[in-house]
Design a protein that fits this description.
The structure holds 2 protein chains of 2 kinds. Chain A is mainly α. Chain A has 16 helices and 5 strands. In chain A, a hairpin with a 2-residue loop joins β1 and β2. The longest helix of chain A has 36 residues. Classes of the chains: A mainly alpha, B mainly alpha.
Chain lengths: 404, 293
């Protein structure tokens, strides 16, 4: 709105600015009036079309839910027509696990803005707590109820550990927080690897040394056998359960983000001091977000545990490598972008399997793809290049953006 | 006596951690990035010496020098290709790229050298030291490790404090923009840092493999993480801090392996790290950075 000529003298700049402000205000008023009118109209039309009332965020969320449901339907159709190899079928539940934990980690990294390298540890807690419960009540409870209770137990125990870890850890910042969460993840894995747990008629026994020092009676049932882990967990999870859990997770996380609490958490992320100065209790909101994130990671662990008959805490599945892998999903999918995490988790889990034909080279290609994608996505030069390309190809779009 | 032996072994392992941690801490201090691929440079250094000494029969000392040169080139190349394009991008993006580089190195090693464990022959061929009439035997590799790492630490401190490049490093770590305005070649300084760090990693690799003679493509990853912990423990960015952190970590790890539980030693090491960080959030010798509002 300000023409180049008007910059010559101060007055005219002022004038120009004023005009611009007035214009803007006018625009705002107009827009408001229009939107009010639109709302009124929307209310009138509510009976007929429900959609026009939805806000942008709701629409966005609906797209995310819809995407998951659509994928589920497509995959189920493909499975029923026999187009999915047994290898991929076996991967369906792990897909769900990774999606859930990636969404959970995105809550910590993207919304809370803290780097956690220990989410595999929370997964581990959820997995073992629920596996022990399911094994102990294998005969006593029917499958559905047992899995539901296991889910609650897994989520609650991971939330508890997350809460306990969060109290000291969230005081630290940046890379120190990252290293401490990594350390906690490793500690959890280590302890579970050294833990022996059994139950018999005289109660629950546990030991950190070996199975013999449990002093179990003959009718006893070994629950955790140290490094051998938990064996004989009932196989309660399947793809449908996984997808339902993804939807529940999405529901929790998306509503959390749009809630008052979520906005408080995001304000802490953007500027802690400013948030503190307007009376936001930083520790409380950080803890809430971290605990929710940990408990959702626990849910992923429950799903993971009930898909396997033998559960061990190996470096491969619950070590820092796993935490890093989840972080890769989150960063590649877009920090703070929930839908991106889902897509990235599925694609990056699928990629090594698709490349399986290349056998030895697949992880090599995976790593190169990872590096190239990171540079393409994040390098300042690449970002600049992409912007220029966009301007060249779609000149209309830029003008639109400026107008907004 | 056995306590002394465990202590000495701990110091030896700690010296290796310290060497790796020095590389971590220098790169972190100057480029403000966690170079997760650092542990894998160690592994590559080990493999180069293995191929040279065991495969081609080259004199071990010459093999070590070749390996140092190779790792230096590798470190600078990684920096140039993977990290430099991302300068100014989000730290998380750089972190993930470093993880990508780490995977890349591991898989290249897997393809070239195979997944089987290679028996690394000890390059230190001096006789072992026997004390108290044979009651306490200190392996020569232990002594060499400790001496080498002390020399390197002192040399590095001198280098950073007294030489022009070293001061340039300090300047870049304090304020990159201001350093650039003063005519310091920031990219060049960071490249030199990577070169030094990778060279140290290669030395650490040789010493680590001499003390624990097995070499796989994943040899470097756990010591890498431990050394990172050591660097944080001592206060990341500080050279003496990395050294002290490394030694302490090695001693704690070895003593807890010997007296408490070998399975829980990692858990104990990490718990002590957490306690230290809670009491002193910037590590033992780290500086407190005031936050501007």
């Amino acid at each position: 709105m300000v023409s180049v000529g008007s910059e010559r003298t101060g007055e005219s700049v002022c004038d120009g600015k004023r005009r611009q402000i007035c214009g803007n205000r006018k625009n705002v008023y107009e827009r408001q009036r229009m939107s009010e009118a639109g709302q009124r109209k929307g209310m009138e039309m509510e009976m007929k079309v429900n959609k026009s009332k939805l806000s942008k965020t709701t629409k966005n969320d609906m797209i995310t839910y819809g995407m998951v449901i659509l994928t589920y339907i497509v995959v189920q159709l493909l499975v029923s027509t026999g187009h999915v190899s047994s290898l991929i079928q076996g991967l369906l539940v792990p897909f769900c696990t990774y999606v859930i934990v990636a969404v959970a980690l995105n809550l910590t990294v993207g919304i809370l803005g803290e780097l956690s390298l220990g989410h595999a540890g929370f997964m581990c807690v959820g997995a073992f707590a629920s596996a022990v419960f399911s094994l102990a009540f294998k005969e006593a409870l029917p499958g559905g109820l047992r899995f539901f209770l296991a889910l609650l137990i897994g989520a609650a125990s991971a939330a508890l550990v997350g809460f306990l870890v969060g109290i000291p850890v969230l005081r630290l910042r940046g890379d120190y927080l990252a290293i401490v969460t990594l350390a906690f993840g490793e500690i959890i894995k280590n302890i579970i690897n050294a833990l022996y747990l059994g139950v018999d008629s005289s109660g629950v026994h546990f030991s950190m040394k070996d199975a013999l020092s449990l002093h179990m009676e003959e009718d006893g049932l070994m629950l955790i056998k140290g490094a051998q882990g938990v064996t004989g967990t009932p196989n309660d999870s399947n793809f449908t359960v996984g997808v339902i859990l993804i939807l529940v997770t999405l529901f929790i996380v998306l509503n959390f983000i749009h809630s008052r609490t979520g906005r408080a958490v995001m304000s802490i992320r953007d500027n802690r001091i400013a948030a503190e100065s307007v009376g936001i209790n930083v520790t409380k909101y950080k803890l809430i977000a971290f605990t929710v994130s940990a408990s959702l990671a626990g849910v992923a662990g429950v799903l993971y545990a009930h898909n396997l008959s033998t559960l061990n805490a190996l470096p491969k599945n619950f070590g820092y490598n796993m935490s890093i892998m989840i972080l890769v999903f989150v960063v590649l999918g877009g920090i703070g972008n929930i839908r991106g995490s889902i897509v990235a988790a599925v694609l990056l889990t699928l990629l090594p399997e698709v490349l399986r034909g290349l056998s030895d080279y697949r992880m090599l290609i995976y790593s190169i793809v990872l590096i190239v994608m990171m540079i393409f996505n994040w390098s300042p030069n690449a970002v600049f290049f992409r912007k220029r390309l966009q301007q060249k190809l779609l000149p209309g779009r830029k003008a639109e953006k400026e107008a907004v | 006596m056995s306590f002394v032996a465990h202590l000495i072994n701990g110091i030896s392992l700690g010296s290796v951690y310290a060497l790796i941690a020095l590389g971590y801490t220098m790169v972190y201090g100057i480029a403000k990035m966690l170079n997760f691929a650092h542990g894998d440079v160690i592994m590559i250094g080990g493999y180069v010496v293995f191929v040279m000494a065991s495969g081609m029969g080259i004199n071990p000392l010459a093999a070590i020098i070749i390996s140092m040169a190779a790792c230096t080139v590798l470190g600078v190349t990684i920096e140039r290709v993977a990290y430099r394009p991302l300068r100014g991008a989000s730290p998380l993006a750089v972190l993930i790229t470093a993880i990508g580089v780490s995977y890349l190195l591991q898989n290249v090693a897997l393809l070239v050298f195979g997944s089987d464990t290679k028996a690394f022959s000890n390059v230190v061929t001096l006789p072992n030291l026997e004390l108290f009439g044979g009651q306490l035997i200190i392996k020569s590799v232990t002594i060499v490790t400790v001496i080498v790492s002390i020399i390197i630490m002192v040399g590095l401190t001198f280098f950073v404090k007294k030489t022009k490049i070293g001061r340039a490093m300090t300047a870049v770590s304090e304020d990159q923009g201001a350093a650039q305005l003063m005519g310091i070649n920031v990219n060049g300084t960071i490249a030199v840092t990577f070169a030094i760090g990778s060279m140290l990693a290669s030395v650490a690799g040789v010493l680590l493999c001499s003390a624990y003679p097995s070499l796989t493509p994943y040899t470097g990853s756990m010591p890498g993480i431990k050394a990172f912990v050591a660097a944080v423990f001592g206060g990341i960015g500080s050279i003496p801090g990395a050294f002290i952190g490394g030694i302490l970590l090695g001693v704690i790890e070895n003593l807890s392996k010997a007296y408490i539980s070998s399975q829980l030693s990692d858990a104990i090491v990490f718990s002590i790290l957490i306690i230290v960080l809670l009491v002193k959030p910037t590590g033992l010798l780290g500086r407190k950075i005031l936050e501007k509002v």
